[in-house]
Write a structure and sequence with these properties.
TIM Barrel, alpha/beta, single chain, 17 helices
Length: 470
Amino acid sequence: MRLPTLAKIVCTIGPSSWDEKSINAMAVEGMNVARINASFADFAELDRVASLIRRVAPKTTIMLDSMGHKIRVTGFEEDRKVNDGDKVILMPAGDEKLLKGYIATTYSNLYKFVKPGNDILIDDGNISLEVVEVKGKEVICKVKAGGVIKRRKTVNVPNVHLEFPGLNDKDRGDIKFAVDNHFDLVSASFIRNREDVMLVKEVVGDSGLKIFSKVEDWEGVKNFDEILEVSDGIMVARGDMGVELPIEKIPMLQKQFIKKCREAGKPVIVATQMLESMKDNIRPTRAEVTDVANAVLDGADMLMLSAETSTGKHPIESVRTMCTVIKESQKMHEVDILHTRTSASEEGDALCRTVAEITEDIDIKTVIVLSRSGRTLASLARHRLKVPIWGATNNPLLARQFNLYFGTHGLLIPSFASEKSEVTKQVVGGVYSKGHLDLDDKIAIISGNPVYDKSSNSILEIVTAKEALG
């Protein structure tokens, strides 16, 4: 039988991968979640790509990645070269003068918030400017580290609070589109505080769409705990974070954020440059392989491929490589039982700790959770079991969202209305038919309590597959 990865793989879909053959191949190689970046897509493109994924890989979870308040350079057609010591003047888009040295930005109020001595970083910090004077709307800068400024590259202003609307019109429209078209989750960019998450929640409503907050600037880092409290999950977006903060802080922040997400029973994605060199090369660097392995051992639920699968030359090989590294790394990971509370019931959290301990003492091949809400499954997954967890549900959205947790897989069943023995038989039969069980394998099954008609999962049974199948 094919061993599934415990940590999941998120693939960004783009020109290199948005054809039917590539999407099917990536799903076969290990893609669990398909990320569609709304920054570069209109509704027609979002619909085309999402519809293709649903048709070709229907069990794949679909993520919409919102644009957020990212600032970019604009207003010129040809690349601009700047040298160390040059003077560069930044202007609001539409106000730029067609003179050498003027560069427009998409943030019209930059001049209101920066002052002499502030750094302004372009293209993920590859080009560094220092503000020397603000004159009207002109931000006059000296080039500290030069290079070629390309169209639409990003602009970061570390340690300066810039005022943005909590949710811009494009993000609001894109998130509503995701809700209306049954996407599974949205990763909301540049979340700075609790209030930013609540604005996204207003658009999502009671649709069931999960909200992952992207922590990628110094304000998001500072307010991480309050952001986590109201989010369904977190993306550790190391790209902008590594520009906004001293780069040496990123590894420790990654470890801290993963641990906090696990304690809360909320999934966490590690993103940015995991196999970056595979944009051009058929093999990754040794450092990239080590980065992927360390993210698995840190306990990340998901690892993300960005340009590697969206614009790179080797999208399928990138997924295959990441899958191979994850499988090798997960051989070394250890069950890590936590005692913090999650959104599950007190009994549910306690039961999940017990199940995690049992899988260490008894040769259990898989755990099955009969789930209506996913809370018990999330509580169990955070202990990072060495065996797969199957979440059985009659909710198609929830079944796909189970892909978001470490070691978990969704299994769609017709109904919970049958006798419990019949439901169990359906579920075990479904797992068995996928080739992940032998008849003599032991299974732990967590199901609801029928005595008081409680919705929380609080019954544990340990049976062989043969016994469950009758």
